[in-house]
Amino acid sequence: MQLMDLIQSKYRIISVVGMAKNAGKTMTLNALIDEAMERNIRLGITSTGRDGEKQDIVTSTEKPLIYVAEGTLIATTEETFKCSEVRMEILEVTDFSTSMGRVVIAQAKNGGYVQIAGPNTNGEMKEVGQKLLFYGAQLVIVDGAIDRVASASPAVTEATILATGAVLSRDMNQVIERSIHQTRLFSLPRVEDEHIRQMISAMIEEKGYYLIDEEGYAVPLEIKTALNSGNIIGRAIEEKTKYVVIGGSLVSKTLKDIVVTTQKYRQVVFVVKDATKIFIDSRDYLYFEKIGIQIQVVDKIKAVAVTVNPYAPQGYYFNPEEFRHKMEQFLDPIPVFDVVLGGDA
Fold first, then answer.
1. How far, in Å, CA of 206 to CA of 119, rounded?
2. pLDDT tens digits, residue range 32-81?
3. Which parts of the chain sit beneath pLDDT 50?
4. Residues 6+ apart with CB under 8 A from 246
5. HEC states along the chain?
6. What highest taxon heads this organism's lineage (predicted)?
7. What residue ranges do the domains of the chain occupy?
8. Is the CB of residue 128 less than 8 Å from the CB of residue 106?
9. Tell me, what's the pLDDT at 12?
10. Cα(71)–Cα(121) distance, rounded to whole angstroms?
11. Residue 240 confidence (pLDDT)
12. What architecture does CATH give domain 3-187+301-338?
């Protein structure tokens, strides 16, 4: 089975998200591009950061280049457009501005290497994805930049591939633990009640913070952010409170402050828009689970695969077969692919 078997004819817009620099995100993107070329799938490509340059601007390490086929549609900035080796036809210059100029929609007139960099916001990224589809892409791939896991949000893409690797830690078990944690966050359950879920979605859209009781009655919390407001939220939770709606990000400190403020935290469900709004490390998350914290989402993220890179730029590496086998064991039923050595899942 190839990566494209999990995607073709099932999704129109997907993201590839790396857990760290050099985790294998660009290699995953290149594997998808190769498979698309084999199947004559016309791709649209963009990025939430910058990719395709020969050397990483931040770390000064060598990076994999991005080779595209003739006819590939690309959304990139004016600056990176000029850096690409491919001859491209401009189809549209958008109004989306970035530090590297406006975002341009173009078509590759021949095969070759490109650099990609897209818009800054989720709303603009979603619109760029739709534009690429409009101009003829059969599948759009959003290259997710480091620490910009928001590209996996269902508000932007329909499914995601998570790229992880040895670069995260010299300890293989640490890498596996962090990778499991991220995929578990992606798999958090949605709020089951359709009416309540729609109500919460509207509240979150307005970046609101609310308590909802068993009868569906909502009370707003007069806070602008959950950060440093855990004690306020904890004191506001009552016996009948069923949901605590978090209109922004949910971090460890907020939950810890709630836990020390009230014992009623066990009876409520904390709700965020999706897993990209949760910033809790694996150790804290296991602790919160143990004491009875429940977290649900409005929009569940579909993780279709995990790719692994057993090599780190620092010079160390894991046994590729052992690394992939262990990841497969712990992540089952999510397929695992080694993008360095290749081979099917």
1. 22
2. 999 999 999 999 999 886 654 555 545 555 566 788 999 999 999 888 88
3. 52, 57
4. 204, 209, 226, 254, 270, 271, 272, 277
5. CCHHHHCCCCCCEEEEEECCCCCCHHHHHHHHHHHHHHCCCCEEEEECCEECCCECCCCCCECCCEEECCCCEEEEEHHHHHHCCCCEEEEEEEEEEECCEEEEEEEECCCEEECEECCCCHHHHHHHHHHHHHCCCCEEEEEECCCCHHHHCCCCCCEEEEEEEHHHCCCHHHHHHHHHHHHHHHCCCECCCHHHHHHHHHHHHCCCCEEEECCCCEEECCCCCCCCCHHHHHHHCCCCEEEEECCCCEEHHHHHHHHHHCCHHHHCEEEECCHHHEECCHHHHHHHHHCCCEEEECCCCCEEEEEEECECCCCCECCHHHHHHHHHHHHCCCCEEECCCCCCC
6. Bacteria
7. 3-187+301-338, 194-297
8. no
9. 94
10. 26
11. 94
12. 3-Layer(aba) Sandwich (3.40)
What's the farthest any 2 CA atoms get from each other in the chain? Answer: 65
**Beta bridge partner(s), residue 102:** 97
Distance linking the first and last C-alpha atoms of the chain: 5
Cα(50)–Cα(341) distance, integer angstroms: 25
d(CA 138, CA 159): 15
Distance CA 26, CA 64 (A): 6
Q: How many CA atoms lie within 13 A of 162 on its CB side?
A: 31
pLDDT the model gives residue 90: 92
Q: What is the pLDDT of residue 196?
A: 95
Question: What is the rounded distance in angstroms from the CA atom of residue 276 to the CA atom of residue 250?
Answer: 10
pLDDT value of position 63: 61
Amino acid at 70: E
Buried b (16+ CB within 10 A) or exposed e, 188-198: beebeeeebbe
